[in-house]
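ok so i was messing around last nite and threw this chain in just to see what happens. nothing serious, just curious
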Amino acid sequence: MGAVQPVLRPLAEADFPCRFAHFRIYGFEAGEESVVALKLGELGGAPAPLVRIHSQCLTGDVFGSLRCDCRSQLEMALERIAAEGRGLLIYEAQEGRGIGLINKLKAYQLQDSGADTVEANQQLGFEADLRTYQVAVAVLRHFGVDRVRLLSNNPEKIQALEQAGIPVEERVPCQAETTARTQAYLQTKKDKLGHLLEGL
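result:
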Protein backbone atom coordinates (compact mmCIF):
# COMPACT_ATOMS: atom_id res chain seq x y z
CA MET A 1 0.00 0.00 0.00
CA GLY A 2 1.24 3.52 -0.79
CA ALA A 3 1.87 6.12 1.87
CA VAL A 4 -0.87 8.60 2.75
CA GLN A 5 -0.58 11.60 0.46
CA PRO A 6 0.05 14.84 2.40
CA VAL A 7 -2.21 17.84 1.91
CA LEU A 8 -0.21 20.44 -0.01
CA ARG A 9 -1.05 24.10 0.64
CA PRO A 10 0.19 26.66 -1.91
CA LEU A 11 1.21 29.80 -0.02
CA ALA A 12 3.27 32.00 -2.35
CA GLU A 13 4.25 32.47 -5.98
CA ALA A 14 6.58 35.05 -7.50
CA ASP A 15 8.82 35.98 -10.37
CA PHE A 16 12.35 34.65 -9.73
CA PRO A 17 15.22 35.61 -12.03
CA CYS A 18 18.52 34.06 -10.94
CA ARG A 19 21.92 33.46 -12.53
CA PHE A 20 20.75 30.18 -14.07
CA ALA A 21 17.47 31.26 -15.70
CA HIS A 22 14.30 33.25 -15.19
CA PHE A 23 12.23 30.92 -13.01
CA ARG A 24 8.91 31.16 -11.24
CA ILE A 25 9.25 30.38 -7.50
CA TYR A 26 6.54 28.71 -5.42
CA GLY A 27 6.21 28.13 -1.68
CA PHE A 28 4.13 25.34 -0.18
CA GLU A 29 3.42 23.74 3.17
CA ALA A 30 2.52 20.11 3.76
CA GLY A 31 1.89 19.45 7.43
CA GLU A 32 4.96 20.78 9.24
CA GLU A 33 7.19 20.72 6.17
CA SER A 34 7.87 23.71 3.95
CA VAL A 35 8.88 23.13 0.35
CA VAL A 36 9.99 25.42 -2.46
CA ALA A 37 9.74 24.78 -6.19
CA LEU A 38 11.46 26.53 -9.08
CA LYS A 39 9.53 26.13 -12.33
CA LEU A 40 10.82 27.00 -15.78
CA GLY A 41 8.64 26.95 -18.90
CA GLU A 42 5.70 24.68 -19.57
CA LEU A 43 5.89 21.22 -18.06
CA GLY A 44 3.43 19.43 -20.33
CA GLY A 45 4.12 17.75 -23.66
CA ALA A 46 6.99 15.59 -24.82
CA PRO A 47 9.58 14.83 -23.73
CA ALA A 48 8.76 14.54 -20.04
CA PRO A 49 10.15 17.51 -18.08
CA LEU A 50 13.46 17.42 -16.27
CA VAL A 51 12.83 17.25 -12.52
CA ARG A 52 15.25 17.48 -9.60
CA ILE A 53 14.13 16.63 -6.05
CA HIS A 54 16.80 18.26 -3.90
CA SER A 55 17.09 17.93 -0.14
CA GLN A 56 18.14 21.07 1.68
CA CYS A 57 21.81 21.19 2.66
CA LEU A 58 22.66 24.45 4.41
CA THR A 59 26.31 23.52 4.79
CA GLY A 60 26.71 22.63 1.11
CA ASP A 61 24.14 24.72 -0.75
CA VAL A 62 24.83 27.95 1.17
CA PHE A 63 28.30 27.66 2.71
CA GLY A 64 29.94 25.61 -0.04
CA SER A 65 30.95 22.66 2.14
CA LEU A 66 33.54 20.37 0.59
CA ARG A 67 32.31 17.43 2.72
CA CYS A 68 29.47 16.69 0.28
CA ASP A 69 28.40 17.10 -3.34
CA CYS A 70 25.08 18.83 -2.64
CA ARG A 71 25.85 22.29 -4.01
CA SER A 72 27.42 20.82 -7.14
CA GLN A 73 24.32 18.69 -7.72
CA LEU A 74 22.00 21.63 -7.14
CA GLU A 75 23.85 23.85 -9.59
CA MET A 76 24.19 21.05 -12.11
CA ALA A 77 20.44 20.46 -12.02
CA LEU A 78 19.61 24.16 -12.42
CA GLU A 79 22.06 24.41 -15.33
CA ARG A 80 20.49 21.39 -17.06
CA ILE A 81 16.96 22.72 -16.58
CA ALA A 82 18.03 26.17 -17.82
CA ALA A 83 19.73 24.69 -20.89
CA GLU A 84 16.56 22.81 -21.78
CA GLY A 85 14.34 25.83 -21.13
CA ARG A 86 11.83 23.90 -19.03
CA GLY A 87 11.75 21.81 -15.90
CA LEU A 88 11.11 21.79 -12.17
CA LEU A 89 13.36 21.81 -9.12
CA ILE A 90 11.73 20.79 -5.84
CA TYR A 91 13.69 21.90 -2.78
CA GLU A 92 12.68 19.99 0.33
CA ALA A 93 13.53 20.77 3.96
CA GLN A 94 15.10 17.38 4.70
CA GLU A 95 18.52 18.43 6.01
CA GLY A 96 21.05 15.70 6.72
CA ARG A 97 19.00 12.97 4.99
CA GLY A 98 16.12 13.92 7.27
CA ILE A 99 17.84 14.18 10.67
CA GLY A 100 17.95 17.99 10.81
CA LEU A 101 20.72 20.56 10.83
CA ILE A 102 22.02 20.24 14.40
CA ASN A 103 22.00 16.45 14.25
CA LYS A 104 23.88 16.69 10.96
CA LEU A 105 26.55 18.75 12.70
CA LYS A 106 26.70 16.10 15.43
CA ALA A 107 27.16 13.55 12.63
CA TYR A 108 30.02 15.66 11.26
CA GLN A 109 31.65 15.42 14.69
CA LEU A 110 31.37 11.63 14.61
CA GLN A 111 32.76 11.60 11.07
CA ASP A 112 35.77 13.55 12.31
CA SER A 113 36.42 10.57 14.62
CA GLY A 114 36.29 8.07 11.75
CA ALA A 115 32.62 7.21 11.14
CA ASP A 116 31.23 7.42 7.62
CA THR A 117 27.98 9.29 6.94
CA VAL A 118 25.79 6.20 7.38
CA GLU A 119 27.55 5.06 10.56
CA ALA A 120 27.32 8.56 12.03
CA ASN A 121 23.55 8.73 11.53
CA GLN A 122 23.17 5.28 13.04
CA GLN A 123 25.35 6.13 16.04
CA LEU A 124 22.98 9.06 16.69
CA GLY A 125 20.06 6.64 16.72
CA PHE A 126 18.72 7.34 13.21
CA GLU A 127 18.32 5.23 10.12
CA ALA A 128 20.85 5.85 7.38
CA ASP A 129 18.31 7.90 5.39
CA LEU A 130 15.04 9.18 6.87
CA ARG A 131 13.87 11.10 3.81
CA THR A 132 10.46 10.52 2.27
CA TYR A 133 9.18 11.82 -1.05
CA GLN A 134 5.40 12.07 -0.64
CA VAL A 135 5.58 15.88 -0.50
CA ALA A 136 7.59 15.95 -3.73
CA VAL A 137 4.95 13.75 -5.34
CA ALA A 138 2.26 16.19 -4.16
CA VAL A 139 4.18 19.08 -5.74
CA LEU A 140 4.46 17.21 -9.03
CA ARG A 141 0.73 16.56 -9.00
CA HIS A 142 0.06 20.22 -8.21
CA PHE A 143 1.81 21.14 -11.45
CA GLY A 144 0.10 18.38 -13.40
CA VAL A 145 3.34 16.46 -13.97
CA ASP A 146 2.47 12.81 -14.60
CA ARG A 147 5.86 11.58 -15.83
CA VAL A 148 9.41 12.83 -15.45
CA ARG A 149 13.01 12.64 -16.49
CA LEU A 150 14.62 12.59 -13.06
CA LEU A 151 17.93 14.28 -12.33
CA SER A 152 19.17 11.89 -9.65
CA ASN A 153 21.63 9.20 -8.67
CA ASN A 154 19.35 7.85 -5.94
CA PRO A 155 17.29 4.76 -6.82
CA GLU A 156 15.00 5.38 -3.81
CA LYS A 157 13.71 8.56 -5.46
CA ILE A 158 12.97 6.65 -8.65
CA GLN A 159 11.17 3.94 -6.68
CA ALA A 160 9.15 6.50 -4.69
CA LEU A 161 7.88 8.23 -7.82
CA GLU A 162 7.13 4.98 -9.63
CA GLN A 163 5.22 3.64 -6.62
CA ALA A 164 3.20 6.86 -6.53
CA GLY A 165 2.19 6.37 -10.15
CA ILE A 166 4.59 8.88 -11.73
CA PRO A 167 6.72 7.04 -14.28
CA VAL A 168 10.39 7.95 -14.49
CA GLU A 169 10.94 7.86 -18.25
CA GLU A 170 14.65 8.51 -17.88
CA ARG A 171 17.15 8.82 -15.06
CA VAL A 172 19.46 11.68 -15.89
CA PRO A 173 22.72 11.32 -13.92
CA CYS A 174 23.51 14.21 -11.58
CA GLN A 175 27.03 13.24 -10.57
CA ALA A 176 29.52 15.80 -9.37
CA GLU A 177 33.22 15.46 -10.02
CA THR A 178 34.90 13.35 -7.39
CA THR A 179 37.56 15.11 -5.35
CA ALA A 180 39.95 13.90 -2.66
CA ARG A 181 37.59 15.38 -0.06
CA THR A 182 34.42 13.75 -1.45
CA GLN A 183 35.85 10.36 -2.46
CA ALA A 184 34.97 8.53 0.78
CA TYR A 185 31.60 10.31 1.06
CA LEU A 186 30.58 9.29 -2.47
CA GLN A 187 31.92 5.75 -2.00
CA THR A 188 29.67 5.39 1.06
CA LYS A 189 26.70 6.65 -0.97
CA LYS A 190 27.40 4.00 -3.58
CA ASP A 191 28.28 1.08 -1.30
CA LYS A 192 25.81 1.58 1.56
CA LEU A 193 22.93 3.55 0.02
CA GLY A 194 22.99 2.09 -3.49
CA HIS A 195 23.44 5.38 -5.30
CA LEU A 196 24.16 5.01 -9.01
CA LEU A 197 27.61 6.54 -9.29
CA GLU A 198 30.12 5.85 -12.02
CA GLY A 199 33.88 5.68 -11.75
CA LEU A 200 34.10 4.81 -8.05
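not much to say yet. Residues 70-84 form the longest helix (15 residues).
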